[in-house]
Design brief:
By secondary structure, the protein is of the alpha/beta class. The chain is 32% helix and 23% strand. α4 crosses α5. The longest helix has 17 residues, at 487-503. The chain is globular, with a radius of gyration of 25 Å.
């Protein structure tokens, strides 16, 4: 039994945990749910030795434990898969998986044991060999750990060169390699596709069958239904309810019966019940407002775009009022396409136009000459900068918020205004009062949980950090997101918006990569409404997502990528999970209509 008794943790002015008392049974899968900032990850990190509680106790199998550092927790058999990736990006995959457990030549610590598991053994070789790392064994162990979760990677490549989803899978392998019998998974599927998540679910079920204890921190309610024996909901740092699945529900996937522990009162163990405990209300399924009007003129046009990072001859268009989804497995090229369009990755061929104006076109017009008529795009290769893209009306919400979307040492206010400092200045002076009021309004609209807009974003939970990144670009809308336009309104104002967006530095095209990764169901609903509102105002949204229900709910069209190429397209009316998954896996193709 794992027992938290009155655990409290505070970070500066933020109280993350308020006297949490909770029991987790051995050999079970226990879910932790709650809104962003509710304390889920903090509780997991207390167990993993990353945070030391300010008050309260932790017991494992009846023995009090006080972990000063993660190594203490590892020694006690506790491993953790973190929501925010925690590797050495410049080291290789195999080096990251071997940290602290280096295999040595000539025997000695690390030379023996299964892949990534127990290490040790008495020194058995020449003493002069022992300081040297056995690279062959290191690579073998890394491949064995990855094979256990069904992943094949070049283990010699740097972790920093991997997509976020692949990094997430490597982190799962690293946690398994510790040999722990208690594993904490913190949003482990947030960057994975449905197929990859299914493999992880199967692995968790195997671990449970082997007697391991799993603590599953998630925002995805269907994962609780699939995996968990119990689910505890945290709200504002307190444990407000623990629900237990009855055996009938586990044997019958259609059943969702459960009881509230200790109450003796029957209560449904379904998504609505969990949501009520999490946010105090039920979610109401509504049709996204942008779907009520016909799309307007083309705002984003991509023609024959190729990049060294992994895009090959990609062509597509996004009209005003549309949200177009990008679907694909890990390595399909979704993030690479968005980065190339925004000018972050070098483009080798093709054109990108925003509102009919080609990016980089005016600057390099003199050097193109007659090459414009060539099949591969313009001679200058579509080379433009992120500054060119922003000036043209593009905005990008990147996949990795910490490394690509935020300056962690700056406040929320400063991160909020980074994309458009001209809007908040008068001459050389920054209008901090105006900037602060706008940031406060954005925080309130998106439900960002923070003591104030002056709090450094490094102190916020992962989901709240994601909201700050979104707020930055949503603030550049011509009107407040959420207002809906009729077709007549759009027709009357389209010309003014097309010119005004660029003149004011406002984003008429929004590129969004995994917009709801790591956010709770309430925040997800808000983000969907904001994106739909932007589209209803006449913006064009190109969105990459691993969340299939998200794509099916929001998108007017879904484009499928595989190995950097467009392999099919489905309209909202024709799209379903089965046909999209078949295209993603290469089992069928569908030409763009």
């Amino acid at each position: 039994m794992i027992t938290f008794r009155g655990v409290r943790k505070q970070f500066g002015g933020v109280v993350a945990l308020q006297h949490v008392t909770l029991e987790i049974a051995r050999g079970a899968c226990h879910g932790l749910l709650g809104e962003n900032g509710a304390g889920k990850s903090t509780l997991g990190k207390v167990l993993a030795g990353i945070h030391r509680p300010d008050a309260g106790t932790l017991e494992i199998d009846g023995k009090p434990r006080l972990f000063v550092q993660p190594a203490d927790a590892l020694a006690a058999g506790v491993g953790m898969v973190h929501q925010e990736l925690s590797f050495c990006p410049d080291l290789s995959v195999s080096e990251n998986l071997a940290l602290g457990r280096w295999p040595r030549r000539g025997g000695g610590p690390g030379a023996a044991g299964a892949a990534g598991g127990a290490v040790g053994g008495a020194p058995s070789g020449p003493r002069w060999l022992r300081p040297f790392i056995d690279r062959r064994e290191q690579h073998r162990r890394a491949r064995a750990l990855l094979a256990r979760i069904g992943v094949e990677l070049d283990v010699s490549q740097p972790v920093g060169a991997l997509p976020v989803a692949a990094e997430q899978l490597v982190q799962v392998a690293a946690a398994l390699g510790t040999g722990a019998d208690i594993l904490v998974f913190d949003e482990a599927t947030s960057a994975l596709t449905e197929a990859e998540a299914e493999r992880l679910y199967a692995l968790v079920e195997e671990l449970r069958a082997d007697g391991l204890t799993v603590i599953w921190i998630t925002h995805r309610l269907h994962e609780v239904q699939r995996l968990c024996d119990r689910a505890t909901v945290l709200r504002d740092g307190r444990a407000v309810a623990t629900l237990e699945r009855v055996e009938a529900a586990r044997s019958d996937a259609a059943s969702t019966d459960a009881v509230v522990v200790g109450s003796g009162v029957a209560s449904p163990f379904d998504a609505d019940e969990l949501v009520k405990h999490m946010i105090g209300r039920s979610l109401v399924e509504t049709t996204p407002p942008h779907l009520g009007s016909e799309p307007g003129p083309v705002r984003l046009s991509i023609e024959g775009l190729s990049s060294a990072a992994g895009c090959h001859d990609v062509s597509l268009q996004v009209q005003a009022g549309e949200i177009v989804g990008l679907a694909g497995l890990v390595g399909a090229g979704r993030s690479e396409l968005l980065r190339a369009v925004f000018g972050l990755d070098r483009v080798s061929a093709g054109r990108v136009s925003v509102d009919g104006r080609e990016l980089g076109g005016e600057r390099d017009a003199g050097s193109r000459g007659s090459a414009d008529s060539g099949a591969g795009g313009s001679a200058h290769g579509g080379r433009w900068s992120a500054q060119d893209a922003m000036a043209a009306g593009l905005g990008l919400v990147p996949e990795d918020r910490k490394r690509q979307g935020l300056v962690l040492g700056l406040s929320g206010r400063e991160n909020f205004s980074l994309a458009d400092l001209r809007r908040w200045r008068r001459g050389p002076f920054l209008l901090r009062g105006r900037e602060r009021r706008a940031a406060q309004e954005a925080y309130q609209r998106l439900g960002v949980r923070a003591p104030s807009v002056e709090t450094p974003v490094a102190a916020l939970s992962g989901g709240n950090q994601q909201k700050v990144v979104l707020a930055r670009w949503l603030a550049r809308a011509p009107r407040r997101a959420g207002s809906v336009q009729t077709a007549a309104d759009r027709a009357r104002t389209e010309g003014a918006r097309t010119e005004g967006a660029r003149a004011d530095g406002q984003a008429s095209v929004l590129l969004v990569d995994e917009p709801t990764r790591g956010v709770d169901v309430g925040a997800k609903e808000s983000i969907h409404a904001l994106l739909s509102g932007r589209a209803a105002e006449g913006a064009a949204v190109l969105m990459a997502s691993s969340d299939m229900p998200e794509l099916l709910h929001l998108c007017t069209r879904i484009i499928v990528l595989r190995e950097g190429r467009v392999v099919g397209e489905r309209t909202r009316r024709d799209a379903d999970e089965d046909s999209l998954m078949r295209m993603m896996a290469g089992l069928s193709t569908a030409p763009a209509p």
